[in-house]
Amino acid sequence: AQSVSQHNHHVILSEAASLELGCNYSYGGTVNLFWYVQYPGQHLQLLLKYFSGDPLVKGIKGFEAEFIKSKFSFNLRKPSVQWSDTAEYFCATGTASKLTFGTGTRLQVTL
Amino acid sequence: DTAVSQTPKYLVTQMGNDKSIKCEQNLGHDTMYWYKQDSKKFLKIMFSYNNKELIINETVPNRFSPKSPDKAHLNLHINSLELGDSAVYFCASSQDRGTRAFFGQGTRLTVV
Q: Residue A47: closest CA among chain B residues belongs to which residue?
């Protein structure tokens, strides 16, 4: 079964620092990858997704992720974080019949 | 012990039937959610309850009715099922002011 793993459980950054959150997926044929974000007190929202094509995916709010097949990775990046990026970030993979989430990474951005 | 559990995992039913999906969390969280994963593989919020009170109700047909008998349970009842209701439904919970959400394994609903 497809799965994803997020190794960073809690990341603390200062404003303007660069961000990279790791996500590794298990091989399982067709790869569909997602990053979701949950801001404090809110529900989950889609940041970006990869189905095929350009491995560098641009998402909302300045986020991007790069699909690197040789490394089974789909890391989330942002050049300069803001305090408002403080949230929980989930990597996910799956098909139309099943979506599997990583355990999440809590990002805390300090002023 | 499973933190957020949904039952059943798979549900196949005919159009027009009424069905329920149950969700229970043993984390002591105040907030619970129902999400729908649609055919484009996106996860969309349907409902959110905080301490048994509805706080989010997105554009969802009236045939969908969440029921929260207590803080640990948020069940989803669907009346007059339609083909388009076929999807995977995820339950989740989180602390009231926290960011970490715990998800159930999902319930795959197939309407035939």
A: B42
Q: What is the dihedral of CA B93, B96, B97, B101, to 10 degrees?
A: 0
Closest CA to B108 of A5, A35, A95: A95
Closest-CA residue of B relative to A39 is B99
Please answer yes or no on whether A88 and B33 come within 8 Å at the CB atom.
no
Distance in angstroms (rounded) separating the CA atoms of residues A24 and A22: 7
- Chain B: residue whose CA lies nearest to A49: B42
- In A, which residues are within 8 Å of B108 by CB distance? 97-98
pLDDT value at residue B98: 44
Contact A43 B96 (CB under 8 A): no
Among B2-11, B22-31, B51-60, the least confident range: B51-60
Beta-carbon separation of B99 and A106 below 8 A? yes
Is pLDDT of B68 > 50? yes
Q: Is the dihedral of CA A83, A102, B21, A30 positive or negative?
A: positive
pLDDT tens, B32-58?
889 887 665 567 778 888 877 787 776
pLDDT of residue B97 exceeding 50: no
Mean pLDDT of chain B: 85
